[in-house]
Amino acid sequence: MLNVGFAGSLRVEAYPPAVTLFIFFCLALLAVIRYNFGKNLHDSFLAYFNYRQSIRLLDERRESDRQAGIFLNILFSLAVGLFISFSIGFFGTQQLFGSYTISILFFSFASGLLYFFKAQIWKTLGAIFLYQSFSKIYIFNMYLNNRILGLMIFPLVAVVPYISIMIAQYIMYVAFGLIAIWYLFKLLRIFQIISVLKFSVIYFILYLCALEILPLLLFVKGCKVLSENIVVQF
């Protein structure tokens, strides 16, 4: 496949069969979620756009909500892995170990692990400073936001390997735009939680610095170091 990426350099890009397998696996997850957890999916979208609905969903969580959440978390991680790996390719940067397969697996696992540790940090902070109500609501909304993001960007990244490079490039721009809007919406939801629970705005600022901006910068820096120094051609 002849590609002209964001970097503007002409290059040949060949997506391995594993990329198609990842995409088909995500499609299978979507089918399972839609067929078995359609109502949970509908409630999740309502909760994403309505804070009161998210609180009600948190208070009334059913076992099916937990099961649907596991599938949606997996979809989110894989969608992020696909998106980051495709973005690396479009920017003309070498994939980790020179392999799309390893790159997708790495970034999928890293994104899932990142939010798992963030949840554990919030649980610990809530227990130490007696802010269990805030940490519980935050963790629920964090995972809710992630699941919706996975549902938003997966349809976009799923078609990238099978369309012309010019169209794929615009689709990736749209995905970047959706992620930016999602991030702003996420910050708005955190501000809503703080306002309703009558926390100081200082907590919001500390939250941004300690648990949003800093981990993001470390994640980007780590990915850059890996892409530059751990490249092996098979």
In short:
With about 230 residues, the protein is an all-alpha fold.
Write the layout of secondary structure elements.
Blueprint: E1 2-4, E2 10-12, H1 17-36, H2 38-49, H3 51-59, H4 63-90, H5 100-129, H6 132-159, H7 165-196, H8 201-229
Antiparallel strand pairs: 1-2
Helix pairs in contact: 1-4, 2-3, 2-6, 4-5, 4-6, 5-6, 6-7
Verbal overview:
With 234 residues, this protein is mostly helical. It has one domain. It contains eight helices and two strands, in the order ββαααααααα. A two-stranded antiparallel sheet has the order 1-2. A hairpin with a 5-residue loop joins strand 1 (2-4) and strand 2. The longest helix is centred in the last third of the chain and has 32 residues, at 165-196. It is globular. It starts with a strand and ends in a 5-residue tail after the last helix.
